[in-house]
Amino acid sequence: MSNGPHGIADIADWNRLLEGRVAVVTGGGDGIGGAISALFAAHGAVVEVAEIDPVRAERISREVTAVGGVIRSHVVDVTIDDDVTRLADAVLGTHGRVDVVVNNVGDYRPLVGFEESTPQTWQRMYDVNLRHVFAVTRAFVGAMIAAGSGNVVNVHSVEGMRGFPRDPVYGAMKAAVAHFTTCLAVDLGRHGIRVNGIGTDLTQTPQVDYLTGYEDVEHLWQSWAPVGRVGWPEDQARVALFLASELSGFVTGHNIPVDGGTKAGGGWLFSPRAGRFVNRSKHL
Ligand SMILES: NC(=O)c1ccc[n+]([C@@H]2O[C@H](COP(=O)([O-])OP(=O)(O)OC[C@H]3O[C@@H](n4cnc5c(N)ncnc54)[C@H](O)[C@@H]3O)[C@@H](O)[C@H]2O)c1
């Protein structure tokens, strides 16, 4: 090859990796989505938050604006098609384009075993974890294709990347998001659009309270994650920034577990008592 590397986008400012990019973040008012909104804005993105909770929507706008970020919140329910249309009209009507879409909304509740599940719980898992990923992506993909560039980041779960016995229907919905990510990336690659996913686990957010029912919390957290700590929304946001920016310009169709090593560790948990990783142990 002559002329050295080409086709690699310039990074003008490594502290402003999303300068001027229009970024939609669903569920961007709190938890992982909130951290993504804040980090993207700190890196120069114009953040458009889709948030069902008006209090969270207002709060993230206030917090990001207070530190000089550019953000607008839309109070929408992404499981309702008319709301998704309203969101897309507002974003595309204002900017005429969208550069990044982060599909982050999802929920494991109500957590039911398969034998207790019903058509109603299946529908709920579908609506809150999968259907809106199709709807929101579909609403913005035309503008990305027209622009010849774009970036989609889907936040799903490690439970979609391994066996999840507690709620197989939830696991199946997350796996569907992960595989939609892979398929769409191939479909859209020649349009300059990259699509990647994040397999989240063990991250402390309003939705997840690992404290409930456990007395010796530190002991358990150290045991659950090979890295020896719980995850935070900021851990997820940093990977979302990597995927949404030119740092990952040659990465598409992949799902990255952001889990402190839980997927890699499989059935191995750290035993403070034994001072080593163990499996098939009666006592941690
Ligand atoms: N926290 C974890 O450890 C963990 C583990 C696995 C997967 N995940 C996934 O990560 C994503 C984010 O989870 P989180 O823990 O930050 O959740 P969270 O509940 O703490 O935050 C979700 C945000 O989305 C908003 N929201 C909920 N439903 C909405 C809707 N229909 N329309 C618009 N906004 C809506 C909520 O108000 C909230 O601000 C989800 O897809 C979740 O399934 C999280």
Automatic annotation (TrEMBL):
Gene Ontology biological process terms in this record: fatty acid biosynthetic process
One Pfam family recorded for the sequence: adh_short_C2
Regions that span the bilayer: none
Superkingdom as given in the UniProt entry: Bacteria
Listed GO MF terms: oxidoreductase activity, acting on the CH-OH group of donors, NAD or NADP as acceptor; quinone binding
CDD domains, per the entry: SDR_c
Keyword Oxidoreductase listed: yes
Recorded family membership: Belongs to the short-chain dehydrogenases/reductases (SDR) family.
PANTHER family per UniProt: NAD(P)-BINDING PROTEIN, SHORT-CHAIN DEHYDROGENASES/REDUCTASES FAMILY MEMBER
The name this protein goes by in its record: 3-oxoacyl-ACP reductase
